[in-house]
Amino acid sequence: MLRFLIPPIGEKPNRKSALLWLTLSLIFVVYYSLLGLQRAFKSEYVAQDDARVYVFWMQQFVDPELFPHDLIANYFKSITPLGFATFYKLMASIGVHPLFLSKILPICLGLIITIYCFWLCLEIFPIPIAGFISTLLLNQSLWFKSDLVSATPKAFVYPLLLAFLYYFLRQSWLIIYLIIVLQGLFYPPLLFISLGILLIHLRRNYVWLVVILGLGFLVMLPYALTSSEFGPVVTASQARTMPELWTGGRHPFFDSNPWQFWLIGQHSGIIPPLMPPLIWIGLLLPILLRNGFQFSLVSLLTIQVKILQQIIIVSLYLFFAAHAVLLKLFFPTRYTIHSLRIVMAIAAGITVTLILDKFFHIYQEKHNLWQLILAATLVFVLLFYPNLSDHFPITDYRQSGESALYKFLQQQPKNSLIATLSDEADNIPTFGKRSILIGREYALPFHLGYYSQIRQRTTDLIQAQYSQNLEPAKRLIQIYKVNLWLVEHTAFKPEYLTQKTWLRSFHPAFTKALNSLEQGITPALAKLTKKCSILETEKFSLLKADCITNSPQS
After folding, report:
1. What angle do CA 404, 405, 408 make, to 5 degrees?
2. Which of the four, 42, 117, 244, 426, has the lowest number of CB atoms within 10 Å?
């Protein structure tokens, strides 16, 4: 039944058939991408959650006067990989705005991912339908997660890793060296995975080993030097005392439950949260291979299949190494979630192909209807599971309706600084194009040279906004040169603070402010919202800092 899809054993697949399945794969990735684009361009003020953090400062490529002497912009500029920033800068030089580029880039990367995944699968298992299934599952998995749609450095992991694996299997060494350079420039942690795979194969070739390690060192050096500007990196002992890194904090890593920490922790767990469920059928591949006599197509597997095992070994080694030198190699899951997603997709594609062929082979012999029903069910789940899910595609696009606020801010001097505890702070740099004092999305607690300043700013802001007198607010304005103060209409109610769980890390300022509100004490700033307001929207009052400074203490 599948013989028209599968070449006779011992023969290479027909190239025309391969191109047909590749085309079908590309059609699906375009379809998924268009679903994402519908959300990306739903309104004027839409941005992907992670893209806000990485792309906002790149508006300097369009207008160099934006974000002058901005702590947050300078920090994220320093930790952004050089190749990624250069790519956005080159595109901006030809008129492509960084925010627009971040929305259309996923479809371009998706096409590249699909092409390399398809041909990589055929290097391992030369059956075009297996390549189609693998690419389909990989793309579904990517759109069940926001890694690709973020258009941040991690979106480049998949095309760069798949390209490396493809050319590695084909022994195209010059291209491999180029890809190693690109990996270091776009997503440095990926370089460790590729170098690990090369070490397995070149451990006896000392000359090439030294050359490759030297190349990797040179590529990583610029990133290490620029990110150290805001060092040092938080140590393991320091991290364990930081509430920001525990459950409920800004960036939870630790968990009091060891099973959850080691197995399914978002940044610490060894089991990747992969979707769709069918991708996990790849775990059956070793079992099918051990019973290869029952599956005729197993003989078509090439020796290159061992690369899947090697990727797993390297990824797990780096996973445990990252745990051992906590935060020095950043989060452990960076070395498993991306690589294991690729391994599972390819393994699942091979497994589904073997199972479908077995079903049809049995049907040809016995004509039992249940084999056809099982095969049809498997195909239906493969093709249509995303359509049955309410969460597909996951894009994490953030849409804001505060157009009046953004337009007003864009008319203010470009060196304006806005203070606010509102979540709207996360949007202001991207849409309002003005600097903020602090913001949840930008409060990354990893480099102490940066985060110690953010922590102090946040503590000062909490104290200033909820103090019974204006002295802390006036002091904040003077120290940080705040020009505008954005206050939500509900900001002076206890539930406003209790809903902002990330602020709980800023003890005792948070606790003192909450207790004051629960006791019914009205903060001094609340009494100035009407007097000092220069813009009113449905949710916010924008206060002029000069008005606060010139107001009496009580």
Report:
1. 85
2. 42
Asked whether the beta carbons of 369 and 266 are under 8 A apart, the reply is no
Question: What tokens does 393 get?
Answer: 């595609």
Given a cut of 80, whether residue 229 has pLDDT beyond it is: no
The pTM (predicted TM-score) of the whole model is: 0.93
Q: What is the mean pLDDT of residues 217-224?
A: 72
Residues 6+ apart with CB under 8 A from 236: 325, 326, 327
Strand duo 533-536 + 540-544: pairing: antiparallel
How big, in percent rounded to 5, are the helix, strand and coil portions of the chain? Answer: 65, 5, 30
Cα distances from 367 to residues 277, 294, 296, 297, 360, in angstroms, run: 29, 18, 19, 20, 9
**Nearest CA among 156, 189, 165 for reference residue 54:** 156
Specify the DSSP element, H or E, that contains 411. none
Report in angstroms the alpha-carbon separations of 371 from 3, 127, 361.
Answer: 17, 21, 9
Q: ∠339-341-347 over CA atoms, to 5°?
A: 105
Phi-psi region of 367 (alpha: psi -120 to 50; beta: other; left: phi over 0): left
Rounded distance between C-alpha atoms, residue 350 and residue 494, angstroms: 56
